[in-house]
Amino acid sequence: MQFSKKTLIISTIFSYIGCQNSSSKEAVKHEIIKPVVISTWNHGLVANEATWELLVNGGNALDAVEAGVKTAEANPEVQTVGLGGFPDREGKVTLDACIMDHNNNCGSVAFLQHIKHPISVARMVMEKTPHVMLVGEGALQFALEQGFKKENLLTEKSKKAYEAWLENSQYKPTINIENHDTISLLALDENGNLSGACTTSGAAWKMHGRVGDSPIIGAGLFLDNEVGAAAATGMGEAMMKTAGSAMVVELMRQGKSPEEACKEVVKRIYKIYQNTPDLEWLQVGFIALNKNGEYGSYCLRPGFNYAVQTKSLKNQLIDGKYLLP
Ligand code: SD4
């Protein structure tokens, strides 16, 4: 009796140690892929190049995400971000952007006019003020104080599109408009730190003063350096109603893969809109990247794509998986 009790204790200790060993073997099995960059739409390809350049040269994720999205902000051909963005109903180009680092520091600007690089203003809000978000006139004043140049962001091309829209003045967003849209970009650097950035001119022909999800931490972008990062594109109101990007991160924390987490939030959004007239033109897409460098995406309808680059994967566009045929 004595002996078997002792045996039981010893075997329990050994099975406990065995358990510990097998779980640490499991942990070793997850090889971390880094660096990684993932971004929305085909303008993500150019953005990834700029991000990658910094990441592979030992740059940190924060600098890299800012540099990446600035390429879309500066490109007048990208009519949904920065310079050349489509204006609102009053013909004004108003920009939204946010940025977040691995320490949960974040900065954001919304309803900002005349500044080509709202992402850099957002970063300065993060680094140089006690606040997270500045909007409108206050954001512009801050940008000018920081040395940003005031410029006209309405290009001839976008002005013509606006004038054409004015003929009917009908507010009806177009799904996957011209296959380029808000740029959301996530990166994991060589040190295993995550950062994210999101920048947009918002929904074309929006009401003057309308702000979407893109500058809202938790809606358009969120990350937790212990878990992963997520960001969105599409009809911002849907991401705001669901705290979309924060939710994707929380679902990854619960063990879902990046794609599964994105899919779950897309399904929640569909549930909210399924019996409403807005479903007709609703598109949303999420991208996600976890701490191990695994990435994924999910969207409501076909047409959304994202760009990814890792050491073993050449910078390339991937079609997002979707819920509705
Ligand atoms: C917004 N999410 O302002 C942005 C715009 C966008 O597809 O991504 N549209 O709602």
Automatic annotation (TrEMBL):
SUPFAM superfamilies: N-terminal nucleophile aminohydrolases (Ntn hydrolases) (SSF56235). It comes from the Bacteria. Pfam families: Asparaginase_2. This is N(4)-(Beta-N-acetylglucosaminyl)-L-asparaginase. It comes from Tamlana crocina.
